[in-house]
Amino acid sequence: MSKIVFLVFIVFFSNLTFAQNSDNHIEWKLYKEVSGLQIFSNNLDCNDNQNGIHNRFVNFQFNNTTTETINISWQYEFWYNEKCTTCDKPASSENTFKITLTPGESVEGDCNNTYSSGLKIFSSFINTVRGSKLTKFEFKNLEVTFK
Fold first, then answer.
1. Residue 4, in any domain of the structure
2. Judging by beta carbons within 10 Å of its beta carbon (0-12, 13-18, 19+), is residue 59 exposed, middle or buried?
3. How many other C-beta atoms can be found within 10 angstroms of the C-beta atom of residue 109?
4. Which pLDDT score, from 0 to 100, does residue 13 have?
5. 60: phi then psi, degrees, rounded to nearest 5
6. 53 within a domain of the structure (yes/no)
7. Phi-psi region for residue 87, left (φ > 0), alpha (ψ -120 to 50) or beta?
8. What is the CATH number of the domain that holds 62?
9. Does 6 fall in a domain?
10. 31 lies in a domain?
11. pLDDT digits 0-9 by tens, 87-97
12. How many domains does the structure of the chain reveal?
C-alpha cells in the first residue's frame, strides 16, 4: 500500500513541478513587422545578487523571415517618467544600432549582453522605487535592407 501512495505522490509532485516550470515560460509578443523582419518583445529581469543589482529590461528578439540576408539599423527614443530623454538628439554611435541576420536567423537580448547591442532597453530597478522608469519607447529610423 505504501508503494502505491509513494507512486501517487511522485506523479502528483512531478505534475506540480511541471506546472510551476511552465508558468515561468516567457511569452514573446509581436511588436513590429517590417519587410520580413519580425521584432518581438518581452520583459526580462536580470539579477546580480552578488552586487545587489536587480534590473528589469524590455527585451527584443529579431527574426529574419526572408530567404535573404538583411541589414537592420535603428535608433530608439526613450521616455523615462513620461519625459522623452532622447527626442531631438542627433544620431550617434551611442544610440544607433546595426545588426545583420542571415535567412531564418534570430537573435535576442539576454542578461549577459550589454546595452550596446540594442537588443534590450533598461526599464526599471526591481528592488527599489527610486530611479527612472521607462514609460514609453519607439524605434526611430528603423531600416531593413537586403544584401
1. no
2. buried
3. 23
4. 37
5. -120, 150
6. yes
7. beta
8. 2.60.40
9. no
10. yes
11. 888 877 777 89
12. 1
